[in-house]
Every structure is written in structure tokens, then in C-alpha cells.
Design brief:
- The complex is a heterodimer.
- Chain A is of the alpha+beta class.
- Chain A has two domains: about 150 residues, Creatinase/prolidase N-terminal domain (Creatine Amidinohydrolase, Chain A, domain 1); about 230 residues, Creatine Amidinohydrolase (Alpha-Beta Complex).
- Chain A is about 35% helix and about 20% strand.
- Chain A is built from twelve helices and 19 strands.
- In chain A, the strands form five sheets. A six-stranded mixed β-sheet of chain A has the order 4-3-2-1-5-7, sandwiched between helices. In chain A, strands 14-13-15-18-19 form a five-stranded antiparallel β-sheet.
- Chain A starts with a helix and ends in a 13-residue tail after the last strand.
- By secondary structure, chain B is of the alpha+beta class.
- Helix content of chain B is about 30%, strand content about 25%.
- Chain B has eight helices and 15 strands.
- In chain B, helix 1 crosses helix 2 and helix 6 packs across helix 7.
- Classes of the chains: A alpha+beta, B alpha+beta.
- At the A-B interface, helix 4, strand 6, helix 6, strand 7 and helix 9 of A face strand 4, strand 6, helix 4, helix 7 and strand 12 of B.
Chain lengths: ~400, ~325
């Protein structure tokens, strides 16, 4: 609705986006020896067919979802149910796989389209209860579709990168309005209200996560108990009222063309950061700079983890239940996952390549002072990296 | 002191497990997880990849939850029953293997599956027969406890605040009015939508349909603002008045489209067949471009959750 939001969408060719990613999906199927896919998770269906993913509660999203059936040796994917108008798909009447009638309609299409393939060449990303009752696609012996989707989606096309960047810019612009309202006495619901209104004014109706404006404890012991012994984030419940000096960790995500943004910042309520708080940010910035200094095609996840730890006095500067960085695209967090509990051997074996996107989210924590957390969305290019989004400020912290 | 809602629900799930001779339930669908556990967690939009998120063991009566922290977890779920977020299937497998009653389960109910979880189950509970248990949960959830109706009534009030804000903002472009609605509903108590807000102006009338969640429970309202020459409001009131126990769910006919579906922890299944006392149904009446929707508690005197008075059957 405003020129600044629309401008970011110029140059995105949705037709090319769909054609290129479908080709990647079929090439990946062939490379992994998968002849057919049955996809029920809405972002996967969207990737294969272009079908829109609504920002609805799971209970509604499940009932609205169609299913994609894809053959490696067929040009057009099949869409069972949903709204096929405007999509280059073979449309089959049907409905959600979340009730028995829809699951039976799906089973008939799967038999018809993939019936000649041995079960281990048919990969499925998930069965609903009604699909299990219908018996097709078979549960026993079928392959897991997630490695196919993971490999196909990991390197983004130019239009995918532009969509992520556009989503990030709109998300950032909305947050400028939100941070302007932060004052003592303001509630979390006030900030969320402004964010949800503002993204709509900017032409986006897909907030994919209840936006997080979480006042953080100053010490781990003052927060919820965790299985890792570290700080809890992001927790969901409640509508806190902010007080002067609160450190607030912010996180939100919207989509453009089905591609996600991921906004992360730390705000201070009602005053400038103290010197100790500013030093948290300084260390966070140093970690990000150290990671970016080694980020290029051919670097491994392990290289990034070691650079981050070295810039933080040898300690790993991220939440142990998450990661130093994660990918982003059709999911707000997808491969590559960097610094997870998959372990160092996994990270050392994972080589970064052009077109991958990493969302760096180091966390600096000094128990008693508190923590700084923010996120940077970075694309790996042919010879280095490029930030996506619009270089959102770190206010009230200063880069020094 | 009355029994907490999450305990009432868990007891109902345990009874259903006993009736179905299930030893263990492994739940992944978000609403089922909330129903069985009372775990309040961050809301995210859209479908979720299936994962073992809540495990209910009949022998111990215990619930075990995928959660790295205890915030949002009911106090009667011990901290030791939490297993943290992990990306490592071996870590997940070890956490599940440590749950008493899982490895020797004879009959294990699931509400969805993945190829990866099938492999894990075959390893962790090698003797278990897999039972498809989505209907068990749907049946348990179908009729509501009074505390559930209270939460749904609260959610309806939030949606009504959104409707009032749209009414005050008109005339306005549809998208701008929808932005006003989500803002008003957030300030009134919910930032968690059921579906996308509908604001559609054609000619002199504006159709508004809003739905939000309060503590996971659905509320909603649909109204058509402007002239009502076809008397759709009256048709809708008569439809609501027909929502009595033992009657067939109201159907469409002669130019009127009626949709009746369950409502509870989010949208529930379409209601086909007989209504039962204690169900809450979302009833949408559409005549031409006019659309009205209410959530109504099925009773001898059906009560829309937003109205204190019984529905006037004469319109």
C-alpha cells in the first residue's frame, strides 16, 4: 500500500521462481533415486506447486491444505484439492488429507500417478491420521521426503533471494513503528498490535509467528528452568508490561511469495543502554564480524562456529538449544543449521555454497547483566556474502 | 477447589485410552498436544511437520512434553518429564527411550506419522502395534467442559472488539479495515488469529468475519454491516435456534448456505449428523453476498457465546 513496500517486490519474476524451483525439486529427486513425492506440509506443497500458504492457525491451515504429488519424470506436479486457479499443475478434485474423504481421494490419485513405482521410490513428508487409515501412500517401506526437500531448497534462486530480502525489508519497516512506541507502561500486546497493523498497511497479511517482545531476566536463575541450564527463549505466554530498563528480545517473521523474514533485535525500554549493556552489543557485533570474515563458498559450518567462539573468548556465543545460524526460505528455520546438537563432525562436513542463506543469531550473555541477541540475514554469494533486507539500525545500541 | 481444565481434559484422554486399550499416545498435532497436556507455547502459523511432541502413558498417567523450559507447562507436569528441542534424531531417540512405559507398550496410538518417526518407533517400542488415534482425540474434544466454553466466550469478545473497530473505521479500503481489526483484537487480548480476517465491501454492505484464539481456544464472529434486504440476520438466528441436542446439524437450502463445524482448540471438524449437548459449533449462514457467523453452545435453549439470551427462534 505504500511505495516503499511495493518497491522491494519489483524484479521478482514469480513464474520464473516457480519453474526454477520445480526443476530443482525434480533434479534432486532424480539424484536421490526418488521417483515420486507426496507432500502434505503446506510450505512443501507451495514449493512444488506455487499453492499459497495462509497465515492461519494450524487447525485451519490443516483443513485448507491440498496435497502435492510429484513425479521426477513428469513436467507438471499434481495438486489434490486446494485452489489450483493460476497454477501450472494437474488439478485433481479433493480436499484436505485431514479427513477420511480427502485422504481417500488422495489415495486414488497416488495410485493413479505413482502406482507403478516401488514403495521405496515414493517419498512422503508426513501422514495424517486419515492417510494412515486410507493406506495409500503406504507407511511401511516409503522413503522420507524431507531429505529431498532439504537438498532442493538449500540454494536459493535469484527470485527466492529477492523474496526473502523483500520480506525482511517490510518486517524491518514495520518494526520502526513499533520501537517508537516502546515506553514504560506499554504492554507486549500494544507492540504486537502495532506490528500486525503495520505489516498489513505495508501490504503483507502473513505474520507467521506471534511476534515476540520478551523482557529478559538479568540472570538465568531468574528465568524459567531449562533442560540446558541456559536462558529460555522464546517463551510464548503472557502479556507483560514493560518497565524502564527492561532488556527486550524481539523476534518476528512474515512472508512474501511464501518466503520468510526473520527479524531479531534487543531493545531497552525507556533509557539508553548502560555501559555494561552496550558492551554486550559490542561483543555481539565482534562475533558477527568474525563470522562474516570467514563466510564464503567453501567454508564449513565448523569454520563459522570456530570464528564465533574465538571472537567470544573461546565460549560458544549462542543458545545451546538452537544454533549459531540457520537457513531461511520456505521455512523460518531450515537447512543449513549451524552449531546445533548434530555436533562438530556434522558442522565440519557441511560446506557452504552460493545461494545458501544464513541467519546469524549469536547471543551474548553475562549473568547478572543480561543478554544481547539480534539476527542478521546473509546470503552466500559467488565470492563472499551479501546482507539481505535493509540494514536495519541497532538502536538504542551504537556501533562503535 | 474445582479441577483445573487441563486435568479434566487429561483424565478424559486417559479414559479414552483405556476404552481403546492404548498403552501410550504419541501426539504431534498442536491442538491435540494442548488438549492432552495443557502446555501453552508460542503460536506459529500454518501446518507443522509431524513430530513427537506430547507422550501420554496410561500406566503412569504421566504426560511427557517436548519443551526446553518449564514456562507454559502445567505445574503438575514434573520438570523431569520435559525433553528439550533437538535436531539430532539420536538425542530425540534417547529422550523417548527414557520415558517409562514406552518401550514395552503393546498398543501405541499416533495422530500422524513420518517415515523417520516410524523408524524410531520400530526401534524404541519394537513390539508395539501402531493404532491411528486421531479420531480418539477428536471424539474426546467434541463436547466441551464449562471452562472451555468460558475461554471461547472470551475469544468471541475479542473478535467482537475487532468487529466494532471495523464498524467505526468504515468507510475504508478492505485491507485498511482488516489492519484496524487485527490491531483492535491484539489490544483486546489476542494476537493469535484462527484464520485470515475477512473484510469485504461490495456495494453498500461490508462482510466482516474475524476469529482469534484465547489460550488456544477459538472465538469468532461474522456480520454483514449495511442494509439487510433479504433478512439474512433473521435466517441466521433461526439457524442458530435449531442447534439443539439430538437434531441433525442445520443444512443448506433454498438460496441459503449453512456451514456447521466444531469449534474448540481452534477449528474442529465439520459436523455431519446429530448435534450433542455441550458441543460448540461455528455456524455460518450465507445468503447471496451476506454472511453471518456465530459460535453457539448446543443446548435445549441454544446460546450464542456472545449473547446471554436464548436465541429467538422466530427471528
Amino acid at each position: 500500500m505504500t511505495p516503499s513496500a511495493g518497491a522491494g517486490l519489483e524484479g521478482i519474476d514469480v513464474g520464473r521462481l516457480r519453474a526454477e524451483r520445480l526443476q530443482r525439486l525434480r533434479d534432486t529427486m532424480a539424484a536421490q533415486g526418488i521417483g515420486g513425492l507426496v507432500l502434505t506440509h503446506a510450505p512443501h506443497v507451495g514449493y512444488a506447486t506455487g499453492h499459497r500458504v495462509p497465515a492461519a492457525d494450524g487447525s485451519v491451515a490443516n483443513y485448507q491444505r491440498p496435497v502435492a504429488v510429484v513425479r521426477a519424470d513428469e513436467e507438471r506436479p499434481h495438486l489434490v484439492g486446494g485452489e489450483p486457479a493460476g497454477l501450472d499443475v494437474v488439478a485433481h478434485p479433493g480436499s484436505t488429507p485431514d479427513h477420511d474423504e480427502g485422504a481417500r481421494a488422495l489415495a486414488a490419485v497416488v495410485d493413479d500417478v505413482l502406482g507403478d513405482l516401488p514403495p521405496d521410490q515414493v517419498a512422503v513428508d508426513g501422514w495424517t491420521g486419515p492417510m494412515l487409515r486410507a493406506g495409500t501412500p503406504r507407511l511401511a517401506g516409503s522413503a522420507d521426503a524431507r531429505p529431498v526437500l532439504g537438498a532442493a531448497t538449500i540454494c536459493k534462486t535469484v527470485d527466492e533471494l529477492a523474496s526473502i530480502s523483500a520480506a525482511q525489508r517490510i518486517n524491518e519497516e514495520a518494526m520502526l513503528s513499533v520501537v517508537a512506541e516502546l515506553d514504560p507502561g506499554v504492554h507486549r500486546s500494544d507492540l504486537a498490535a502495532t506490528f500486525l497493523r503495520r505489516i498489513r498497511e505495508l501490504g503483507v497479511d502473513t505474520s507467521m509467528i506471534d511476534p515476540i517482545f520478551q523482557p529478559m531476566p538479568r540472570a538465568v536463575a531468574d528465568g524459567p528452568r531449562t533442560t540446558t541450564g541456559d536462558v529460555a527463549f522464546p517463551t510464548g505466554p503472557g502479556d507483560p508490561t514493560y518497565r524502564e530498563g527492561d532488556l527486550i528480545w524481539v523476534d518476528s517473521g512474515i512472508t512474501v511469495n511464501g518466503y520468510a523474514s526473520d527479524f531479531g533485535r534487543t531493545w531497552v525500554c525507556g533509557r539508553d543502554p548502560s555501559e555494561a549493556e552496550q558492551e554486550l552489543f559490542d561483543r555481539w557485533r565482534a562475533v558477527v564480524d568474525a563470522v562474516l570474515a570467514v563466510l564464503r563458498p567453501g567454508a564449513t559450518n565448523g569454520d563459522l562456529c570456530r570464528a564465533a567462539a574465538a571472537a567470544n573468548g573461546g565460549e560458544r556465543p549462542w543458545l545451546p538449544h538452537f544454533y549459531l545460524a540457520h537457513g531461511i526460505g520456505i521455512e523460518s528455520a531450515e537447512m543449513p543449521l549451524i552449531g546445533t546438537d548434530l555436533g562438530e563432525a556434522f558442522d565440519d562436513a557441511f560446506v557452504l555454497a552460493p545461494g545458501m542463506v544464513v541467519v546469524l543469531e549469536p547471543v551474548i550473555w553475562v549473568d547478572g547483566v543480561g543478554g544481547y541477541r539480534a539476527e542478521e540475514v546473509i546470503a552466500v554469494t559467488d565470492d563472499g556474502w551479501q546482507a539481505l533486507g535493509g540494514e536495519h539500525p541497532y538502536d538504542p545500541f551504537v556501533v562503535r | 477447589m474445582s479441577t483445573p481444565l487441563h486435568v479434566e481434559r487429561r483424565d478424559r484422554v486417559l479414559s479414552a485410552m483405556a476404552e481403546a486399550d492404548l498403552d501410550v499416545l504419541v501426539l504431534g498435532e498442536q491442538a491435540n498436544v494442548v488438549y492432552a497436556s495443557g502446555h501453552h507455547r508460542l503460536w506459529t502459523a500454518g501446518t507443522r511437520p509431524h513430530a513427537p511432541t506430547c507422550i501420554v502413558v496410561r500406566r503412569t498417567g504421566a504426560t511427557h512434553l517436548l519443551s526446553t523450559w518449564d514456562e507454559g507447562v502445567p505445574a503438575d507436569v514434573p520438570f523431569e518429564h520435559l525433553f528439550g528441542i533437538t535436531w539430532n534424531p539420536e538425542v530425540m531417540g534417547a529422550a523417548l527411550a527414557a520415558i517409562p512405559g514406552l518401550s514395552d507398550a503393546r498398543r501405541l496410538g499416533v495422530d500422524g506419522m513420518t517415515a523417520g518417526f516410524l523408524r524410531a518407533v520400530e526401534r524404541l517400542a519394537p513390539g508395539a502395534e501402531l493404532v491411528v488415534a486421531d479420531n480418539l482425540l477428536a471424539d474426546a474434544r467434541r463436547t466441551k467442559f464449562p471452562a472451555e466454553v468460558d475461554l471461547m466466550r472470551a475469544a468471541c469478545r475479542v473478535a467482537a472488539a475487532g468487529l466494532d473497530a471495523v464498524g467505526a473505521a468504515l468507510p475504508a479500503p478492505d485491507a485498511a479495515a482488516a489492519a484496524v481489526a487485527v490491531d483492535a483484537m491484539a489490544r483486546a487480548g489476542s494476537t493469535r488469529p484462527v484464520g485470515e480476517p475477512l473484510v469485504r465491501t461490495t456495494g453498500g454492505t461490508t462482510v466482516v468475519d474475524l476469529g482469534v484464539l484465547v489460550e488456544g481456544y477459538e472465538g469468532g464472529i461474522g456480520r454483514t454491516l449495511g442494509d439487510d434486504p433479504e433478512g439474512t440476520a433473521a435466517v441466521h438466528r433461526r439457524t442458530l435456534a435449531a442447534c439443539r441436542p439430538g437434531t441433525t446439524a442445520p443444512g443448506s437450502g433454498s438460496g441459503t448456505t449453512v456451514e456447521v463445524r466444531g469449534a474448540g482448540l481452534g477449528a474442529e471438524r465439520p459436523v455431519v449428523g446429530t448435534l450433542e449437548a455441550g458441543m460448540v459449533v461455528s455456524v455460518t449462514t450465507t445468503v447471496g453476498a451476506h454472511r453471518w457467523r456465530d459460535l453457539v453452545l448446543v443446548a435445549d435453549e441454544p446460546r450464542p457465546l456472545l449473547g446471554g439470551a436464548p436465541v429467538d427462534g422466530d427471528g
